Amino acid sequence: MRNPISNYSMVFNAAPYKLIEDSVKSITGETIPIKFYILPESFEKGAKLIEETKKYNAFYEKYIGPFPFRSEKLGIAETPHLGMEHSTMLAYGNKFQYNANGIDTLQLHEFGHEWWANLVTASDWRDFWIHEGFQSFMDTLYLEELKGKEAYLTAMKNRARGFKNKQPVAPREPKIAYQVYMSEPEYLNSDGDIYGKGAYFLHTLRYLIGDEKFFKALRHMAYPTKEMELLTDGRQTRLVNTDDFLTIAEADSGMKLDWLFEMYLRQPKLPKLVVAAPADCAVNCPLLLRWETPNNMPFPMPVDVEIDGKIQRVEMPDGKGTVTYSGRPPVVDPKGWVLKVQ
Ligand SMILES: [Zn+2]
Q: What DSSP assignment string belongs to 302-329?
């Protein structure tokens, strides 16, 4: 490596590899060398994965900026274990499997870590959701790119089922690896909330501030400036923490967002949306909405309400809102944008 390398993510692989070389053009116009070290028995399958990875590269470059290691290479080494985000030489052990949508989900995920882990690296394990949460969000966003918004929304909703909500996604005190990768006390056999809940937090932030500002903030988190997007000598990489993202998101949205970060990242419990509709009402009925929050934390989160097939956004500046309906009771947050108690 000529670029800085994350010290948690170095490895030595040895095998009778066969090398497939190729290249792909970056959005910067530069040529990125591709080197895939494939085991002889799967050599034939390597070329297809390269073509697939070129699509992933185009997707990441579109949303978060140029492939950070253009001055070196885009590479994988086939391994017996599933995968890991070693900079410019990902460990790849997914056996060239593609899901129903034609995606090699392992490769999509590990390759995205070239941005969320290797370009932008958490300065302490407490902030590792910046690697796994951001990347899990990208994994789901790729479905939107490929299949459209509904596919993205459905996949994101499915994520919400497994949250543990036992420790904060981004604790304030220093942590060691297993403490953030697993939800205490279930250290074994389960991913921590830094993956799915981190991704869902970004999904909710996207709803709150809107696509234009959200994707600007996402890109600024990867590359704070246009100048940094053009660097390839190592100065494009940097260490970050959760407050860096708060600063960026507030600057790009023009909104105060500390309450959002406090709720979803700094403490483990989810807010609950209490919905009250009058029992016998047919016309101009008031639907009362109220956020019930841990320790009465402020939570001025708007929410979508669907009335007669039309979705409207109800602002809740004091954590309360009212909307009037006639006939069938409205559906609250029909698309599942806001992370809350189910
Ligand atoms: Zn990962």
A: -EEEEETTEEEEEP-TTSEEEEEE-SSP
